[in-house]
DNA sequence: TTAGGGTTAG
């Protein structure tokens, strides 16, 4: 930081070195009346107050100077503006603006840019825009300040419009402009055009521009381009690493995100809050509890970072480790609506509905206003606990109490709630009353209700609606085919299979993952690849026969039940989650929880199997499928046998 | 005087 004496020396030099003592004192050619040269004493006092960030004294000094007809120069005004910004003093900032333009003076572009930037930082875009409009000359900084302001305010069209206007005025963009305008891009076409523009201007190698490019390609789901931009970089900094790790984690490519994280560490970088947040997100997606715990150790360095703690909380919730999640939540120094919503949804999804609803009350009591997602967690909790009246109350009153319009997801929760309670007709009525158009997820939810309550006709109707909106949904094709087969509608069965062949739709094979000693073991249905598969199968056969001895009957009635479509009796025995459960029994110590993640919904038979294994082997088994969490303990499941 | 990265549902 510059010392006061250095500053004074600087001022002294300015005063003595030129016939125009203050370099930015208006010249005769400036608009407005020429200003008197400043008095060194008054000016020195004023400058000192500015550098000391003593805003009240600086403002008084400025007024005193102006009473003598003395005006500061642009550099000093810019220091005063920094003073206002440091103190978040909006009104004083506006006053400085008036002083800068007082006496008909027309300040230099440099100073007007600083004033615009001040208004942007105060989030007063209208004031910034008005000042920008008044400018006689706008340079690249003026334009970039406005573009960046609109990009930050999520007014993408406005930011892009300014970029085009800037080009039309013949102002050449620089790397600052590109990294700002990229954030406003929401279409691939724009990004490619901009990318070409940067290459032409030789700005592509700038590290800020590159990280913005990686980020925007990732957000547009163009990971190949993001990785390409990243790999082409010879010099990478931490933000660039964070951009690619974050992009991968947000695009459900957790494995690759964790690989890049390892490469980043090998390259000598130390993770910061943003890195750890993305790494936790990758762990969350993969349900890697043990790896997540390792990351937790590093999170302790940043224990007041809200975003990072929210990510940690979510990791524990989604890995099914509610005790850890509660502990993180209790210890958080600050909690925002995301912290509360994450915890409420985490409790609800893991089967702790009453706790979730109690937490919602606590949240409101603590003065935090619920948002769209909070209410989803609350409705989910009601649905899980079969609290039809409460769920309908929250749903019907959300607009009135919290100002939140019910969206498709809220309708989905209530359809699920009514379906779970056997009120399928009411669920249909709700679909009909929806203000927004039902989508494939809505119909799939209704299909779930039909599945449980064996409502074949409605199931066929709902399945057809799903396929209209999502013609690639293999699970629904298989389900529909099974429904027809059960009704001996063989022509319809053939038609469904023909459609699947024609469209090249194949069912994704069922896959389950389990983490043992920080290694991930993956099992595919009917797996033969795992090195211990023979031992696993031997255990599995013994276990199935043991369970059959206490009444387990493999459930081969898959109609309206098997969302995987793994309907053959022999494959039933080798469903991926059964293999993973047995591997967990073989590999994990007797007290530890068996945690499994699945890519497809669990079938009815595996659900029964898991409940019985949990009972006979005295284990807690947690299976996370794409939609729900199942905690199996003492022969029961937290989902209440509805999923 | 202008620029880049991280959190909740689905």
List strands and helices in order, with pairings:
Blueprint: H1 4-16, H2 40-51, H3 55-67, H4 74-86, H5 90-100, H6 109-121, H7 125-134, H8 140-152, H9 156-168, H10 175-182, H11 188-201, H12 207-219, H13 223-231, H14 238-250, H15 254-266, H16 273-286, H17 289-299, H18 306-318, H19 322-331, H20 337-349, H21 353-365, H22 372-385, H23 388-402, H24 408-420, H25 424-433, H26 440-453, H27 456-469, H28 474-486, H29 490-503, E1 511-516, E2 519-524, H30 533-549, H31 569-572, H32 576-587, E3 594-598, H33 604-616, E4 621-624, E5 629-633, E6 636-637
Parallel strand pairs: 3-4
Antiparallel strand pairs: 1-2, 1-3, 4-5, 5-6
The structure holds one DNA strand of 10 nucleotides.
Structural class: mainly alpha
Low-confidence parts lasting 5 or more residues at pLDDT below 50?
1-32, 558-569
Provide the spatial order of strands within the biggest beta sheet: 2-1-3-4-5-6
**Span from first to last CA?**
62 Å
Strand content: under 5%
Tell me the quaternary state. single chain
Tell me, what's the shape? Answer: elongated
Radius of gyration: 32 Å
What is the share of helical residues? 55-70%
Largest sheet composition: 6 strands, mixed
Mean pLDDT across every amino acid position: 87
Number of helices: 33
Number of strands: 6
Family: Belongs to the PPR family. PCMP-H subfamily.
Domain DYW: 551-643
Organism: Gossypium anomalum
Pfam families: DYW_deaminase, E_motif, PPR_1, PPR_2
């Amino acid at each position: 930081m510059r010392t006061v004496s250095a500053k004074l020396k600087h001022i002294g030099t300015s005063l003595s070195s030129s016939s125009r003592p203050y370099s930015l004192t208006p010249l005769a050619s400036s608009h407005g009346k020429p200003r008197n040269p400043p008095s060194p004493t008054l000016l020195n006092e004023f400058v000192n107050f500015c550098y000391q960030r003593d805003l009240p004294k600086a403002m008084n000094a400025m007024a005193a100077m102006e009473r003598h007809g003395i005006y500061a120069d642009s550099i000093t005004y810019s220091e005063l503006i920094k003073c206002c910004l440091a103190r978040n003093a909006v009104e004083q900032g506006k006053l400085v603006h008036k002083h800068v333009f007082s006496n008909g003076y027309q300040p230099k572009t440099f100073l007007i840019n600083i004033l615009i930037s001040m208004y942007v930082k105060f989030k007063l875009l209208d004031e910034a825009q008005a000042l920008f409009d008044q400018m006689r000359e706008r340079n690249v900084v003026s334009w970039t300040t406005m573009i960046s302001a609109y990009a930050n305010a999520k007014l993408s069209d406005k930011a892009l419009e300014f970029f085009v206007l800037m080009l039309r005025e013949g102002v050449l963009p620089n790397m600052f402009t590109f990294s700002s305008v990229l954030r406003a891009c929401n279409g691939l076409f724009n990004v490619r055009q901009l990318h070409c523009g940067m290459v032409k201007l030789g700005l592509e190698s700038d590290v800020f521009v590159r990280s913005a490019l990686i980020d925007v390609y990732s957000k547009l789901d163009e990971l190949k381009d993001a990785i390409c931009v990243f790999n082409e970089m010879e010099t990478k900094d931490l933000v660039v690493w964070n951009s690619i790790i974050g992009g991968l984690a947000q695009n459900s490519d957790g494995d690759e995100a964790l690989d890049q994280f390892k490469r980043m560490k090998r390259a000598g970088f130390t993770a910061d809050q943003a890195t750890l947040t993305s790494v936790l997100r990758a762990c969350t997606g993969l349900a890697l509890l043990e790896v997540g715990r390792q990351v937790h150790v590093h999170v302790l360095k940043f224990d007041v970072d809200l975003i990072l703690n929210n990510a940690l909380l979510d990791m524990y919730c989604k890995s099914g480790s509610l005790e850890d999640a509660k502990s993180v939540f209790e210890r958080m120094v600050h909690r925002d609506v995301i912290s509360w919503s994450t915890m409420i949804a985490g409790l609800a999804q893991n089967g702790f509905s009453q706790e979730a609803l109690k937490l919602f009350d606590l949240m409101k009591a603590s003065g935090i206003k619920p948002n769209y997602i909070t209410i989803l967690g609350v409705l989910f909790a009601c649905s899980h606990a079969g609290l039809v009246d409460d769920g309908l109350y929250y749903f019907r009153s959300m607009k009135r109490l919290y100002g939140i319009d019910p969206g498709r997801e809220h309708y989905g929760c209530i359809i699920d709630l009514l379906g779970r309670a056997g009120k399928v007709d009411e669920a249909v009525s709700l679909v009909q009353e929806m203000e927004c158009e039902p989508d494939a997820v809505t119909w799939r939810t209704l299909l779930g209700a039909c599945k449980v309550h064996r409502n074949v006709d409605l199931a066929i109707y709902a399945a057809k609606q799903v396929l209209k909106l999502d013609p690639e949904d293999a699970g629904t094709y298989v389900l529909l085919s099974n429904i027809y087969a059960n009704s001996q509608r063989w022509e319809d069965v053939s038609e469904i299979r023909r459609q699947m062949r024609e469209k090249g739709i194949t069912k994704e094979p069922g896959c389950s993952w389990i983490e043992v000693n920080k290694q991930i073991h993956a099992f595919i249905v009917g797996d033969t690849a795992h090195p211990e598969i023979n031992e696993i199968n031997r255990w599995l056969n013994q276990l199935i026969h043991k369970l059959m001895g206490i009444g387990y009957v493999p459930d081969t009635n898959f109609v309206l039940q098997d969302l995987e479509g793994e309907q053959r009796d022999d494959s039933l025995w080798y469903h991926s989650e059964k293999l993973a459960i047995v591997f967990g029994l073989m590999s994990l110590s007797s007290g530890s929880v068996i945690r499994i993640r699945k890519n497809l919904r669990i079938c009815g038979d595996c659900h029964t199997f898991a409940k019985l294994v949990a009972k006979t082997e005295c284990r807690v088994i947690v299976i996370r499928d794409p939609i729900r969490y199942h905690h199996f303990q003492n022969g029961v499941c937290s989902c209440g046998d509805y999923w």
